[in-house]
Amino acid sequence: MNQQEFISQLQEALSRLPESERQDIVADYQEYFRDGLAAGRSEADIAAGLGDPRQLARELTARHHIARWESRKSVGNLLAVVGAIAGLGVLNFLLAIPFLFYLWLLTMAALAATGILIGGVVLFGTLACNELFGWPAMHETRDMRAVWSAFEQGGPVGNIHIRGSRGEKVDVVRDASSGKTSINIQSSDGTVSLERNASDVTGQLRIEDKEGQVNIDALDWGFSRKGAWIASVLMLLLGGGGLFLCYLLARWTWRGLLAYGRYQLGILDKARGLDG
Amino acid sequence: MKTQLKKGTLDMCVLAALAAGDSYAYELVSILSRSMEVSEGTMYPLMRRLQAEAWVSTYLVESASGPSRKYYTLTAEGRRQLVLMQQEWQEFVSDVNSVLQLAAGQTKGEAS
C-alpha cells in the first residue's frame, strides 16, 4: 500500500467524522509519511508500520463519538456511540437490535412518566391556586352531588316521612350528630336506598326488587376536592418516581455502554501492541 | 505479560520523552523505539488520548520546506501525572525486585 492508498482509505473510513476533525487526522498521517520518507523509508514500509487504515479509522471514530457523548448527552450522540462500537466489530448487529429496543422502551417509559408528572403538577397547581385565590372556580356539577347539596342547604331541617296509600314509603333521614344522611324509597316493586357518610367522598346505593339486589359500596360522589388532592399527589409521586427511575436506568446504561466501549478499545490497544 | 506492561507504561514513556522537550509524532516513535519496541500505529491514537486527558497540548510550527508540523508539549497537568506515574513505577519495580531477590536467595540456600 502506498501513501495515496493509505490516505484515501483512511479518509473514506473517516467519513462519519466532522470535516475539521477528519482533516486534522489526515494531516497527522501525511506528516508522518513525510517524516518517514525524509528518513529514507519506503511508503509501503511506513504504511505497513501504521497498520490497517480502516481499523484505525473505526477506532478514531469510536473515540470521537464517546467523547462527544460525554460532553453532550443527546439521543443522536448515544446512537452514534452504539453505531461506532458496533463498527469496532464486537457488539454485533444482532446484539444492537435488542439494545436499541431497550433504549426505545426506556424513552417511552420516560415520556409516560413525564406526562403523569406534568398532569400531577397541573392538577396540584390548579387546586392550590383555587385554594389560595379562588380561581379557577370549581363546579361540582354531577347530578347526584347537586341533589345532595340542594337537599343539605335548602332542604328542611329534620326528617321527611311520606307514606303512600298502597304502602309506598319515602323516608329522608338526616342524623345531625354523625352527619350521615340516607334516603329510603319503598314500594310494592322494591326498595331504593341511598346513604351518604359525613366523609364527603363515599356513599352507598342499594336497589332491591323482586328479581334481585344491587349493592354499591364506596359510591363515588363525583368530583371531590379531597380526592383531587390525593390524585394530584399520587400523580406527582408516580410521575416523579418513574422519571427518576428512568434517569437512573439511563445513567447506568450509558455508563455501562461507555465502559464497554473503552473495554473494546482496550482490546484493540492490546491487539496492536502484540503485533507491534 | 510484557505486552500488558508495555501498554500501561507507554503513556508514561511518551510523557517522559516530552518532559525532555517538545516533539512531533515521528520523532517520538524514533526516541521510544531506540530502547523499546513500539508499534507506529499506536502513536496517533495514543497522542489523541493524551490530548483528551489534557496531559499534552499541540501547536503547529511552520517549516521552511512544505507544510507545518504538529508539535506536542506537556501541560502542567501532564507533568503532575508523569511524577505520579514515575512514583508508582518505582514502587512497583522495587516491590518486584525484592520478591525476585528473596526468591533467588531461597533458591541459593536450597542449592548449598
UniProtKB/TrEMBL annotation, chain A:
Keywords on record: Membrane, Transmembrane, Transmembrane helix
Domain of life: Bacteria
Keyword flag Transmembrane helix: yes
Transmembrane segments: 78-104, 110-135, 228-250
Name of the molecule in the record: DUF1700 domain-containing protein
From TrEMBL, chain B:
Taxonomy, superkingdom: Bacteria
InterPro entries in the cross-refs: Metal_resp_DNA-bind_regulator, Tscrpt_reg_PadR_N, WH-like_DNA-bd_sf, WH_DNA-bd_sf
Domain Transcription regulator PadR N-terminal stretches: 14-82
One Pfam family linked to the record: PadR
Protein's name according to its UniProt entry: PadR family transcriptional regulator
Phylogenetic classification of the source organism: Bacteria, Pseudomonadati, Pseudomonadota, Betaproteobacteria, Neisseriales
